[in-house]
Design goal:
With 271 residues, the chain is an alpha/beta fold. The protein contains ten helices and twelve strands. 38% of the residues lie in helices and 18% in strands.
Length: 271
Amino acid sequence: MSTQPLVLVADDEPRITKLVSIALSGEGFRVITANSGEEALARAEEIRPDIVLLDIVMPDLDGIEVMRLLRERRPVPVILLTAKGSATDKAKGLDLGADDYIAKPFHPDELAARVRAVIRRSTGLQPGAGVIRFDDVEIDLERRTVTRAGELVSLSRTEWLLLQHLANNAGKVVLHTELLTKVWGPEYRDDLQYLRVWISRVRRKLGAKPGEAGRIRTFQGIGYLLDIEPAGSAAADGGASSTLGADTGPTADVEVSDQVNPDQDDGSGGA
């Protein structure tokens, strides 16, 4: 499954969805379209896009209402598309929570640039930043690629989303509930066993040996931390943090069997 950003475009005009799809696909985005507000909500639940482009005027649910309902389910960046180009309309859309606003007609290059900018802001990246290196691993958060020893690592969409959130917070403990909510949605916030399965998978993709935590350290009952410090630096700090982050005891999750059917991942877009 590609880790390139997944864009959901909702507009009741087929020519607009086709234009947007062609423009963004040509820039490396993956694009899914919807022809109504109701369809947009259903597709968003199914594929969990990285960003949503919404036409304000649609026959069933307008873009503002769709945005509100989407945000009730999970945080997702939204760009509003509309033929209304006045400063008042733009201000209203932004005041209601949109991340950006593009008036029709728009240039394809401008559209792609705005989409990239909103995704960067939503993930906390700055232009040209976001490359994390440790051992023989390189994580490029902007390009959404991972390499080991110079070879591209194949990640499922869920594996990437999980690693992305850990990498965005490298060196910090990320709570179990935060990871589950960010990657799968609030309905999964207490499903720790599900998280353990995916952490185990990502560890292996980063080169951890069976029975070892590798660079993703466990803080029992709290969360996980992506350790990007040079090897051996934790021991030099006196070992206290190493003890807290060790995968020891009956709840260690270094090796977890795939008993929660993780293969349902990419059938639904990695949700």
